[in-house]
């Protein structure tokens, strides 16, 4: 009997698992065929998020040279390396280009086709363009995967869930806002993927409250301006008259930092230094567990600071007062943040050259503006300064910190669910929009199409309207018929709109306090609530507590997603090869 593997989710992560199965095909049991069933209503390769049928105005937020779906020698994995072209090499583009998402979708489709072609002849891939509804079956026997378009389930020796980003039912606050909107004839758009949102209820010329200032907001900004016929003439925006007026705010009250517009020359900081495998092992070995803020963040903070000052002393020694060797020894010996701060103050005379992570995280903390218009001018100056700094190699320690953030994220995936704060902080510093998008934001602000609300934006439903305020501008408030939550849904198992994931959770799969599916960090096997890994069910991606830093990996950065894909693929093949596994199947 032929073996059967079902992969639910055929986007980038599912394609990555398929590629790793092909790379490790020597581990397949000899003389036994394998059917791989890919279940996804969207095209295999790009999946839903990167499908080619979306607005050509939407870009990737990474440079083409920073995107690859192929392993290289920097990946710490057991399986063989199978290198391939990064996006810019495949597309024949300049490395610093920001391409449309349609191009990325074509790259992913090609990568999927290449993975299928690399499989041995005895392996057959079947794509089922529908949704999976449920997984059932005993731990010791074949699994049944129930599909939306057929009465009989797929039989599977093993199931791998690579579900990607999922829709979610509204939480208590969102449900209340939605109910208020329905009762008063208002518009409320809950967290969603902006490319899939119906924006037609947002009327031209009317105010729209927007809560969220990250990448989902950038997409919304584009679709409601250029997407409605507006255009840019240099740094000036020429409205079409069909745009609403966007009043945007968030917890920080500022947009994500611009992508850095230069490359790091010279020697990069030697990482990891203070947060490497040994430190992660020690955290995992604690019988009492660990707390992120108390036990992990101090190590992360010291690692990021180390990268910053290594680069400052190495590339800009004239802006320091000590030799690097003296500083490094004193920095390594410093026992707490206060001691490190005193050392930095003595060694780095200009405060602008010092790394202040707290100030970076909350740049408007404690700031108050006398009027709404004064804040518009102040935030435009902030964005202009960010653009200048992020494109000036004189501030190259910023890029060294970016590299350290990637290094840290790769280590943190081993710790499981560490709460949402870190992921938001990482995205804010390292996953911001291309510089041209922030220049467009400035043009929209000057044209009056975009208005800034401030930090800790609060929204209340009262008087038949939505009302937004912020302590950044005391006394200011704006009312609107429409409220858009410009952020992605939280990937929770309990509130997911994916029926398979919700059923899995209801039937005993373990979840973290934040609602992420718990998996074995070694190979991605789904854990039950007693901590036992399921021998036949795996899960990888943002709906798990082993989620990675983003959709794609920069070449030569060790991509933890590649390591996870490889471990899961090898575990699948080992199960199929083992006599006990074949007998139970």
From TrEMBL:
<feature type="domain" description="FAD-dependent urate hydroxylase HpyO/Asp monooxygenase CreE-like FAD/NAD(P)-binding">
    <location>
        <begin position="6"/>
        <end position="165"/>
    </location>
</feature>
<dbReference type="Pfam" id="PF13454">
    <property type="entry name" value="NAD_binding_9"/>
</dbReference>
<dbReference type="InterPro" id="IPR052189">
    <property type="entry name" value="L-asp_N-monooxygenase_NS-form"/>
</dbReference>
<dbReference type="InterPro" id="IPR036188">
    <property type="entry name" value="FAD/NAD-bd_sf"/>
</dbReference>
<feature type="region of interest" description="Disordered">
    <location>
        <begin position="528"/>
        <end position="561"/>
    </location>
</feature>
<dbReference type="InterPro" id="IPR038732">
    <property type="entry name" value="HpyO/CreE_NAD-binding"/>
</dbReference>
<protein>
    <recommendedName>
        <fullName>FAD-dependent urate hydroxylase HpyO/Asp monooxygenase CreE-like FAD/NAD(P)-binding domain-containing protein</fullName>
    </recommendedName>
</protein>
